[in-house]
Write a structure and sequence with these properties.
Elements lengths: L4 E7 L4 E7 L4 E7 L8 H18 L10 E7 L5 H7 L8 E6 H9 L5 E6 L3 E6 L4 E5 L11 H16 L7 H8 L5 H10 L2 H5 L2 H9 L3 H23 L5 E4 L3 H4 L5 H6 L7 H12 L1
Helix pairs in contact: 3-12, 4-5, 4-9, 8-9
GO molecular function: kinase activity
Protein name: N-acetylglucosamine kinase
InterPro entries: ATPase_BadF, ATPase_NBD, Euk-type_GlcNAc_Kinase
Length: about 290
């Protein structure tokens, strides 16, 4: 099969990014939109992806029919779930060729420039993966309710829980916990109502505030960030034990959490060669 274009999709719990190139790798367009977690919000994720694909073609000055001449690889949060994979098997966006994998897989390929290695994504959610050049071994990635250790959503959940405990004088308060409660008008009931509709990305919105407070020495913020760093350390060690020789960290928490990791782990980390979209495009080139 010969195609003229390659398109990579990186769909996460907070945002979805799309990059379009020609077969030579020349970037033609890139755009982003809202969340694209196919486990928690399948229909919304598909609508987001299709809208971004159309926008990318338009930005590149190509007609919608050019999608029929495009190889697409989508790396999506939640795509590792078998029931979701079955639904995605029926997704037909009208491209020349399509492969759907998890977002951690495209991140792993991109992080090591297509060479074997491992990656730990710590964004809204979290997941680890190791790639030997042909096959992936995954760790975690089972969603906010069961997994996602070392993620923004888990850190946010802990922060709100701690804020509530401080509000009820179970633990000592701090500027961080007081500010979080102020966002809910100091009302546990308003916080409870908010949780009815809160998605993982909603829980993660407080994360920048937690890191800023930790940098200022807020005792509760420091405790929260250290817990997250400990979770990441445990999972990273498991990737090394499963044969990974190189480990890169990616995602929104990768940089802010790094100074809080153990010195041993920091010394063993490698910088990503490229981003997850680059990994998706490498796989799309294989597909094409």
């Amino acid at each position: 099969m010969q195609t003229r274009y390659l398109l990579g999709i990186d769909g996460g719990g907070t945002r979805c990014r799309v990059r379009l190139t020609d077969r030579a790798g020349q970037r033609l367009a890139e755009c982003e939109g809202g969340p694209a977690n196919v486990w928690s919000q399948y229909e919304t994720a598909v609508q987001t992806m299709e809208a971004l694909m159309a926008r990318a073609l338009q930005s590149a000055g190509l007609p919608p029919a050019a999608l029929q001449d495009t190889a697409v690889v989508a790396g999506l949060a939640g795509a590792n779930v078998t029931s979701v994979q079955a639904r995605l098997d029926n997704w037909q966006p009208g491209c020349a060729a399509l492969a759907v994998v998890s977002d951690v897989e495209i991140a792993c390929v991109g992080a090591h420039g297509g060479q074997p290695g491992a990656v730990f994504i710590c964004g809204t959610g979290s997941q680890g993966a190791a790639w030997d050049g042909e096959h992936f071994t995954s760790l975690g990635g089972w969603g906010f309710a069961l997994s996602d250790q070392g993620s923004g959503s888990e850190l946010g959940h802990r922060a709100l829980r701690l804020a509530l405990q401080a509000h009820e004088a179970i633990v000592p308060p701090s500027a961080l916990t007081q500010h979080i409660m102020l966002q809910f008008e100091n009302s546990p009931e308003k916080m409870l109502e908010w949780t009815r509709q809160a998605q993982p990305a909603d829980w993660a919105r407080v994360v920048p505030e937690v890191f800023a407070a930790a940098s200022s020495g807020d005792v509760n913020a420091v405790t929260l960030v250290k817990q997250t760093a400990s979770d990441i350390g445990i999972l990273a060690e498991q990737l090394f034990l499963r044969g990974a020789s190189q480990l890169a960290m990616m995602g929104g928490l990768a940089q802010p959490i790094r100074p809080w990791l153990s010195s041993d782990l920091q010394a063993r980390l490698t910088e990503p060669v490229a981003d997850a979209l680059s990994g998706a495009l490498m796989l799309a080139a294989r597909l094409a």
